[in-house]
C-alpha cells in the first residue's frame, strides 16, 4: 500500500490552516464577548455637584 503524497500533503496543509483559523477566530470572538460583557455592566453614576 502506497501513500499518494500529491493528495495527502495539500489535504494536511488545508486541515492545519483551518484549525489555525478557527483557533484565532475563537480567541478574537472570546475577547469581543468579554469586552461587550464589561461594557454592558452598570457603571456607577458620577456626581457633578460642585459642593464639597
Automatic annotation (TrEMBL):
<keyword id="KW-1133">Transmembrane helix</keyword>
<keyword id="KW-0472">Membrane</keyword>
<keyword id="KW-0812">Transmembrane</keyword>
<protein>
    <recommendedName>
        <fullName>LPXTG-motif cell wall anchor domain-containing protein</fullName>
    </recommendedName>
</protein>
<feature type="transmembrane region" description="Helical">
    <location>
        <begin position="6"/>
        <end position="23"/>
    </location>
</feature>
